[in-house]
Amino acid sequence: xxxxxxxxxxxxxxxxxxxxxxxxxxxxxxxxxxxxxxxxxxxxxxxxxxxxxxxxxxxxxxxxxxxxxxxxxxxxxxxxxxxxxxxxxxxxxxxxxxxxxxxxxxxxxxxxxxxxxxxxxxxxxxxxxxxxxxxxxxxxxxxxxxxxxxxxxxxxxxxxxxxxxxxxxxxxxxxxxxxxxxxxxxxxxxxxxxxxxxxxxxxxxxxxxxxxxxxxxxxxxxxxxxxxxxxxxxxxxxxxxxxxxxxxxxxxxxxxxxxxxxxxxxxxxxxxxxxxxxxxxxxxxxxxxxxxxxxxxxxxxxxxxxxxxxxxxxxxxxxxxxxxxxxxxxxxxxxxxxxxxxxxxxxxxxxxxxxxxxxxxxxxxxxxxxxxxxxxxxxxxx
Length: 382
What we know:
By secondary structure, the protein is an alpha/beta fold. It is built from 19 helices and 6 strands.
């Protein structure tokens, strides 16, 4: 009586397993399709730039990489108007050395042949290990790039988690999904789609940059905590994975005859003074100087002590529209004036005191976030 039953069970289709797999595929597909409802603008930024690079970079002679200091502070349209070069901003909110390397490599693979690339590496992000952006990496990297980053980090657990987050959207989106469900249960708007698309319109209109409206000055509540160890550690050093990808970036640029301009953007005066006081800025400078001698294609543009006051920022790190206008004009001037110079002195350019105009040089068709929030939302699905 038992044997026939066992025989029939062994030969039957595992309908429960098939149903479970089908349910997983359905849930993962729904989450992926509703990406814009769950994500945040600074996360979607990584996906948007990853999707954009192959279409926008091939015709550009100047490409911008780095983190949010470039995203907010470097305006391609201002540089274009003063240099006649086509420029696109491919920086990422929270971008690290590895993200800049992978984006430059993709641009070159897409037949982009820039003459110059601008890049910055915020000191606090250089200290952070790649896990700092665990949420964002699956939005930007392919599966093979994820494995490549994991191998460079020499961390099997990190590599495996990156791969799983790439395969299963529910793993990378779980915090946002949870937040959306809780918001819906409390009767609040559960979707972030309109906010994300407003930022995306700003990026598309401004060739990748994120312009924020001017403020008279940010108040003490907007000031970053000057005792926060994430920004103000006891000492400073570059994480080994970030150092590896900085050198990879510079070597890749050199092998393709691309000039690299390493930007040291201005930050809020109190923030800068605190870093100077702790000796963190001098350590960062000491880390950077040997690279000038090692890489003949590298020039540093240093605006750290150029007198940008708090009225030119939206917070302690990020320039507002007038500040970004002034900084972008200085970059354009530097791009025109930088000449091939074999000496290390000639390739460390210090930006003079901030020079403001009574009238902005930002083209009228550039929109900032305050304008984008009032515009009709374009019909992006993902």
